[in-house]
Amino acid sequence: MKKINLVFTALTLTLLAGCSSNGAINNEKTRSYAKSHELVGQASWYGNKYHGRLTASGERYDMRAYTAAHKTLPFGAIVRVTNTTNNKTVDVKINDRGPFAKGRVIDLSHKSFEQIGNTKKGLAPVKIEIIDDSNTFRYKH
User: Fold this and answer.
1) Are strands 67-69 and 104-109 parallel, antiparallel or unpaired?
2) Among 6, 75, 89, 119, which one has the highest count of C-beta atoms within 10 angstroms of its own C-beta?
């Protein structure tokens, strides 16, 4: 009977450990991303021309969603983009690749860019912080 209780306890602890948060793993993963990706530079935005088209992740681009394109950050990562001129921030999900213009580090959806800058100017100096990388994926399709 003691052996059954011991096995049951071990099994229960194993299951509970599997359900617990893996924050330490994600924090290390985030630190690794932050060291190996360009996280300071100019942000731009994209809108009508791409609205409804498939992004590189396989999701449909929605210019009214809080999303962004980055050259290397994993799809699904949530990043905080801060305009270094006015300190306004927006949290966005990486779901596309780009920008492909020199000096730009992130392309924000129209809605996202409106939160931190003037869309008529088109560019804003930003810094990017990775705040959640627990739901990253390679491709959606």
Assistant:
1) antiparallel
2) 75
Amino acid in the structure at residue 37? H
Q: How many whole angstroms separate alpha carbon 52 and alpha carbon 41? A: 27
- 27-to-9, 23, 33 alpha-carbon distances in Å: 30, 6, 10
DSSP H or E segment with residue 109: strand 104-109
Q: Return the structure tokens found at 15.
A: 């299951």
Residue 61 · residue 52 · CB < 8 Å: yes
Could you tell me where the DSSP H helices lie in the chain?
2-19, 23-36, 110-116
Between 113 and 133, residue with greater pLDDT: 113
Q: What confidence tens digit (pLDDT) does each residue in 58-78 have? A: 999 999 999 999 999 999 999
